[in-house]
Design brief:
Blueprint: E1 4-10, E2 39-44, E3 50-55, E4 60-64, E5 70-75, E6 81-87, E7 96-102, E8 108-114, E9 124-127, E10 133-137, E11 145-149, E12 154-161, E13 164-165, E14 172-175, E15 179-184, E16 187-191, E17 197-203, E18 209-214, E19 220-225, E20 228-233, E21 240-241, E22 243-244, E23 250-254, E24 260-269, E25 275-283, E26 289-290, E27 302-303, E28 314-315, E29 319-321
Parallel strand pairs: 1-12, 1-17, 22-26
Antiparallel strand pairs: 2-3, 2-29, 3-4, 5-6, 6-7, 7-8, 9-10, 10-11, 11-12, 12-13, 14-15, 15-16, 16-17, 18-19, 19-20, 20-21, 23-24, 24-25, 25-27, 25-28
Length: 322
């Protein structure tokens, strides 16, 4: 199979950042959330599997049972479809099952088995904005970045940027129009179909940064720099710190309307490969919010509760807001 090498072109895009007004938080998780909050938050917690809480009513429930063979899951931007990627490895065989299903009915829309070039059974999959394609990520160099149609049909594979191999931990995100956003070393790069040329959006000259997220409109980014969360335009302009505490914040996620940010607070390592954090919501209005646990009832900071519980929800894996 012919390898695709990306030629990098420096292009800066000036786009408008989204804003919103400050809101009050829920009253201890008993009577729901501000009516302006919408959608469903999905999060992975310990041995309970994938859980969810609907907004603004605050009703929580199980979504995907705990399954050690589940590589990852994704939810379509419109909240209608669920993608699960399951490791079906057996002795000498490394199949990965991709299943796209309708959340409301449970019916299967597409299903196929994928075998990675590097024989990696821990590949992950992510739906494009329009649900037509799947981005397949792997920890094997031989796999590169694979792009499939949602029925499993091969579209393309990217192995390097300007001859430099893609890093194992580099992020890759979908953008509107089936474009890709790739973190490569300290660069944020945009690739448009057919993924043969890249545009440098921003060079990140920071020693510790990551956890990149893109808003639903595709014109704003959230990112962790050191211990706190920042937002910026797609070209890196208007870089603004939006969280502060005596601890670490990470893994930001935009709300479906882009007016809020879900952030992991009190982020801490629990083992060689484990982390955990408390879920909180802040307005995406460019202000800096104190999410420290000591700073209780900070205006605008909304702790994520499940209705009827008296404690904040926590996550230790994927976190999605749709």
């Amino acid at each position: 199979m012919k390898k695709t090498t990306i030629s990098l072109i420096v292009v800066f895009l000036m786009l408008l950042s989204a804003c919103s007004k400050e809101n009050n938080g829920p009253d201890g998780g008993q009577n729901g959330y501000p009516s302006s909050l919408r959608g469903t938050i999905y999060y992975d917690w310990a041995s309970e599997g994938i859980l969810k809480v609907s907004l603004p009513d605050g009703v929580g429930s199980a979504f995907i049972p705990d399954n050690s063979k589940l590589n990852n899951f994704d939810i379509s931007r419109d909240g209608k479809y669920k993608l699960t990627v399951v490791n079906e490895q057996t002795l000498g065989k490394y199949p990965i099952r991709f299943t796209l299903s309708d959340i409301a009915t449970g019916s299967i829309i597409e299903e196929f088995v994928y075998n990675s070039p590097g024989l990696n059974a821990y590949c992950r999959g992510y739906l494009s904005f329009d649900n037509s394609h799947i981005l397949v990520l792997s920890n094997e160099k031989e796999d590169g970045i694979t792009i499939l149609k949602r029925n499993g049909e091969f579209v393309g594979r990217i192995y390097d940027i300007n001859g430099q191999e893609l890093g194992f931990n580099d992020q890759r995100l979908w953008l509107p129009g089936n474009a890709l956003l790739i973190v490569h070393h300290n660069n944020i790069i945009r690739l448009d179909p057919p993924y043969t040329r890249g545009s440098l959006l921003k060079e990140m000259n920071y020693q510790d940064w990551g956890d990149l997220a893109v808003n639903p409109a595709g014109n704003q980014l959230a990112v962790r720099i050191a211990n706190h969360v920042y937002t910026m335009g797609m070209d890196g302009s208007k870089l603004t710190q939006v969280t502060t505490s005596n601890f670490k914040e990470a893994v930001p996620e935009f709300s479906p309307d882009g007016k809020y940010l879900l952030v992991g607070t009190e982020y801490k390592q629990t083992g060689p490969f484990g982390w955990m954090w408390t879920l909180k919501i802040i307005p995406n209005d460019g202000k800096n919010y104190n999410v420290d646990p000591i700073a209780q009832n900070t205006p605008g900071v909304i702790p994520v509760f499940v209705k009827g519980k008296n404690k904040m929800e926590m996550s230790g894996g994927q976190m999605i807001w749709r």
